[in-house]
Amino acid sequence: MPGVTRRAALAAIAGCVATQTAVAQAVTPGPVTPAGRHLAVLLDGMNVESLWQRGYHIDWRTGVSEGPPEITPGSHTHCSAFVAAVADRLGIYILRPPEHGQNFLANAQERWLNNPSASGWNRIGRLGDPGASLRAVALANQGKLVVAIYFQPPLSTIAGEKELSGHSAIVRPSDKSPSLIDSEGPDEIQAGMVNHRLVALRDGFRSHKDAWSGGAIEYFWHDANPP
Do the domain assignments include residue 227? Predict the structure, then answer.
Protein backbone atom coordinates (compact mmCIF):
# COMPACT_ATOMS: atom_id res chain seq x y z
CA MET A 1 0.00 0.00 0.00
CA PRO A 2 2.76 2.54 0.82
CA GLY A 3 4.18 1.99 -2.67
CA VAL A 4 0.79 2.60 -4.24
CA THR A 5 0.34 5.76 -2.17
CA ARG A 6 3.78 7.02 -3.20
CA ARG A 7 3.09 6.30 -6.87
CA ALA A 8 -0.24 8.11 -6.63
CA ALA A 9 1.43 11.10 -5.01
CA LEU A 10 4.12 11.22 -7.69
CA ALA A 11 1.49 10.96 -10.40
CA ALA A 12 -0.46 13.82 -8.83
CA ILE A 13 2.68 15.96 -8.67
CA ALA A 14 3.49 15.16 -12.31
CA GLY A 15 -0.05 16.06 -13.32
CA CYS A 16 0.15 19.34 -11.45
CA VAL A 17 3.47 20.23 -13.13
CA ALA A 18 2.04 19.33 -16.54
CA THR A 19 -1.01 21.52 -15.89
CA GLN A 20 1.16 24.46 -14.81
CA THR A 21 3.34 24.03 -17.90
CA ALA A 22 0.27 23.99 -20.16
CA VAL A 23 -1.07 27.14 -18.52
CA ALA A 24 2.30 28.89 -18.93
CA GLN A 25 2.46 27.88 -22.59
CA ALA A 26 -1.09 29.15 -23.13
CA VAL A 27 -0.14 32.69 -22.15
CA THR A 28 3.31 32.80 -23.77
CA PRO A 29 3.22 35.65 -26.29
CA GLY A 30 4.78 33.60 -29.06
CA PRO A 31 6.56 35.01 -32.12
CA VAL A 32 5.50 38.08 -34.05
CA THR A 33 3.54 36.82 -37.06
CA PRO A 34 3.54 38.45 -40.51
CA ALA A 35 0.24 40.14 -39.56
CA GLY A 36 1.92 41.44 -36.40
CA ARG A 37 4.82 42.82 -38.43
CA HIS A 38 2.37 44.60 -40.77
CA LEU A 39 0.65 46.11 -37.73
CA ALA A 40 3.99 47.34 -36.37
CA VAL A 41 4.75 49.02 -39.71
CA LEU A 42 1.36 50.73 -39.66
CA LEU A 43 1.93 51.94 -36.09
CA ASP A 44 5.39 53.29 -36.92
CA GLY A 45 3.93 55.05 -39.95
CA MET A 46 1.55 57.06 -37.75
CA ASN A 47 4.49 59.38 -36.91
CA VAL A 48 3.10 59.87 -33.41
CA GLU A 49 6.21 61.56 -32.05
CA SER A 50 5.64 64.50 -34.40
CA LEU A 51 1.83 64.56 -34.57
CA TRP A 52 -0.98 64.50 -31.95
CA GLN A 53 1.09 66.97 -29.91
CA ARG A 54 -0.27 68.17 -26.59
CA GLY A 55 -1.15 71.80 -26.12
CA TYR A 56 -2.80 72.19 -29.53
CA HIS A 57 -6.21 71.56 -31.01
CA ILE A 58 -5.67 68.78 -33.54
CA ASP A 59 -7.46 66.94 -36.31
CA TRP A 60 -8.10 63.62 -34.52
CA ARG A 61 -7.64 61.52 -37.65
CA THR A 62 -4.31 62.97 -38.79
CA GLY A 63 -2.85 64.46 -35.60
CA VAL A 64 -2.10 67.71 -37.44
CA SER A 65 -2.41 70.78 -35.23
CA GLU A 66 -5.05 73.33 -36.19
CA GLY A 67 -4.32 76.91 -35.19
CA PRO A 68 -2.19 78.42 -32.42
CA PRO A 69 -1.44 76.72 -29.08
CA GLU A 70 -4.36 76.24 -26.68
CA ILE A 71 -4.57 78.88 -23.96
CA THR A 72 -7.48 77.38 -22.02
CA PRO A 73 -6.70 75.45 -18.81
CA GLY A 74 -5.62 71.83 -19.10
CA SER A 75 -2.84 69.81 -20.70
CA HIS A 76 -4.78 69.19 -23.96
CA THR A 77 -3.29 65.75 -24.62
CA HIS A 78 -4.55 63.47 -27.39
CA CYS A 79 -4.01 59.84 -26.34
CA SER A 80 -7.57 58.76 -27.08
CA ALA A 81 -7.69 60.63 -30.39
CA PHE A 82 -4.56 58.75 -31.45
CA VAL A 83 -6.11 55.42 -30.45
CA ALA A 84 -9.21 56.32 -32.47
CA ALA A 85 -7.05 57.27 -35.46
CA VAL A 86 -5.22 53.90 -35.40
CA ALA A 87 -8.53 52.06 -35.17
CA ASP A 88 -9.94 54.14 -38.03
CA ARG A 89 -7.02 53.22 -40.30
CA LEU A 90 -7.72 49.57 -39.56
CA GLY A 91 -11.40 49.99 -40.37
CA ILE A 92 -12.40 49.53 -36.73
CA TYR A 93 -14.78 51.73 -34.77
CA ILE A 94 -14.00 52.87 -31.25
CA LEU A 95 -15.80 55.80 -29.62
CA ARG A 96 -14.51 58.99 -31.25
CA PRO A 97 -15.59 62.39 -32.59
CA PRO A 98 -18.23 63.43 -33.44
CA GLU A 99 -20.01 60.90 -31.19
CA HIS A 100 -17.89 62.19 -28.30
CA GLY A 101 -15.66 65.26 -28.09
CA GLN A 102 -11.92 64.96 -27.52
CA ASN A 103 -12.20 66.18 -23.92
CA PHE A 104 -12.19 63.23 -21.49
CA LEU A 105 -12.46 60.86 -24.42
CA ALA A 106 -10.29 58.13 -22.82
CA ASN A 107 -12.67 57.84 -19.88
CA ALA A 108 -15.61 57.68 -22.26
CA GLN A 109 -13.86 55.04 -24.38
CA GLU A 110 -13.28 52.89 -21.29
CA ARG A 111 -16.97 53.04 -20.39
CA TRP A 112 -17.93 52.35 -24.01
CA LEU A 113 -15.59 49.34 -24.30
CA ASN A 114 -17.14 47.80 -21.20
CA ASN A 115 -20.60 48.07 -22.75
CA PRO A 116 -21.98 45.05 -24.65
CA SER A 117 -22.83 47.36 -27.54
CA ALA A 118 -19.09 47.75 -28.34
CA SER A 119 -19.39 45.43 -31.33
CA GLY A 120 -16.32 43.34 -32.16
CA TRP A 121 -14.38 44.32 -29.03
CA ASN A 122 -13.33 41.70 -26.50
CA ARG A 123 -12.11 42.27 -22.95
CA ILE A 124 -8.82 40.62 -21.99
CA GLY A 125 -8.77 41.78 -18.38
CA ARG A 126 -6.91 44.13 -16.08
CA LEU A 127 -3.19 44.59 -15.70
CA GLY A 128 -3.33 42.83 -12.32
CA ASP A 129 -5.07 39.72 -13.71
CA PRO A 130 -2.70 36.73 -14.09
CA GLY A 131 -1.55 36.43 -17.70
CA ALA A 132 -3.51 39.45 -18.97
CA SER A 133 -0.44 41.34 -20.20
CA LEU A 134 0.98 38.23 -21.86
CA ARG A 135 -2.31 37.60 -23.65
CA ALA A 136 -2.38 41.23 -24.77
CA VAL A 137 1.05 40.87 -26.39
CA ALA A 138 0.14 37.49 -27.88
CA LEU A 139 -2.87 39.05 -29.62
CA ALA A 140 -0.86 42.05 -30.84
CA ASN A 141 1.74 39.62 -32.21
CA GLN A 142 -1.07 38.06 -34.26
CA GLY A 143 -1.93 41.44 -35.75
CA LYS A 144 -4.93 42.20 -33.54
CA LEU A 145 -5.62 45.73 -32.35
CA VAL A 146 -5.05 45.77 -28.58
CA VAL A 147 -5.94 48.85 -26.54
CA ALA A 148 -4.63 49.50 -23.03
CA ILE A 149 -6.84 51.99 -21.23
CA TYR A 150 -7.21 53.55 -17.78
CA PHE A 151 -10.33 55.19 -16.39
CA GLN A 152 -9.34 58.04 -14.07
CA PRO A 153 -11.84 58.26 -11.18
CA PRO A 154 -13.25 61.75 -10.60
CA LEU A 155 -11.87 63.95 -7.87
CA SER A 156 -14.25 64.75 -5.03
CA THR A 157 -14.35 68.46 -4.19
CA ILE A 158 -16.51 70.69 -2.04
CA ALA A 159 -18.39 71.73 -5.16
CA GLY A 160 -18.93 68.11 -6.23
CA GLU A 161 -17.03 65.69 -8.47
CA LYS A 162 -14.46 66.97 -10.95
CA GLU A 163 -13.76 64.76 -13.96
CA LEU A 164 -10.10 63.91 -14.58
CA SER A 165 -8.51 62.66 -17.80
CA GLY A 166 -7.84 58.96 -18.25
CA HIS A 167 -5.27 57.50 -20.64
CA SER A 168 -5.21 55.05 -23.53
CA ALA A 169 -2.54 53.49 -25.75
CA ILE A 170 -1.97 50.73 -28.32
CA VAL A 171 -0.06 47.55 -27.39
CA ARG A 172 2.74 46.89 -29.87
CA PRO A 173 3.74 43.51 -31.29
CA SER A 174 7.07 42.51 -29.74
CA ASP A 175 9.40 39.66 -28.84
CA LYS A 176 9.72 40.93 -25.28
CA SER A 177 10.36 38.22 -22.71
CA PRO A 178 7.53 37.20 -20.35
CA SER A 179 9.61 38.25 -17.34
CA LEU A 180 10.13 41.74 -18.75
CA ILE A 181 6.45 42.02 -19.67
CA ASP A 182 5.63 41.12 -16.10
CA SER A 183 8.02 43.69 -14.60
CA GLU A 184 7.38 46.68 -16.86
CA GLY A 185 4.40 45.80 -19.03
CA PRO A 186 4.02 45.32 -22.79
CA ASP A 187 5.59 47.73 -25.24
CA GLU A 188 3.09 50.30 -26.47
CA ILE A 189 2.72 53.36 -28.70
CA GLN A 190 0.92 56.47 -27.49
CA ALA A 191 0.20 60.15 -27.60
CA GLY A 192 -0.05 61.94 -24.26
CA MET A 193 2.03 64.16 -21.99
CA VAL A 194 4.94 62.70 -23.96
CA ASN A 195 4.37 60.98 -27.30
CA HIS A 196 6.19 57.66 -27.70
CA ARG A 197 6.60 55.40 -30.70
CA LEU A 198 7.76 52.67 -28.32
CA VAL A 199 7.64 52.72 -24.53
CA ALA A 200 6.93 50.23 -21.75
CA LEU A 201 3.39 50.37 -20.39
CA ARG A 202 4.65 51.21 -16.89
CA ASP A 203 6.40 54.33 -18.20
CA GLY A 204 3.71 55.32 -20.70
CA PHE A 205 1.08 55.48 -17.95
CA ARG A 206 3.44 57.13 -15.45
CA SER A 207 1.44 60.39 -15.24
CA HIS A 208 -1.50 58.38 -13.80
CA LYS A 209 -0.03 57.19 -10.52
CA ASP A 210 -2.68 54.57 -9.69
CA ALA A 211 -2.89 53.07 -13.18
CA TRP A 212 0.22 50.88 -12.92
CA SER A 213 0.60 50.53 -9.15
CA GLY A 214 -3.07 49.69 -8.72
CA GLY A 215 -3.20 47.27 -11.66
CA ALA A 216 -6.10 49.32 -13.01
CA ILE A 217 -5.14 49.39 -16.70
CA GLU A 218 -7.57 47.36 -18.82
CA TYR A 219 -6.89 45.52 -22.08
CA PHE A 220 -9.34 45.14 -24.97
CA TRP A 221 -8.79 43.66 -28.43
CA HIS A 222 -10.46 43.67 -31.80
CA ASP A 223 -9.91 41.19 -34.61
CA ALA A 224 -8.22 43.10 -37.41
CA ASN A 225 -5.37 42.60 -39.79
CA PRO A 226 -3.82 45.69 -41.38
CA PRO A 227 -3.65 45.85 -45.18
Answer: no
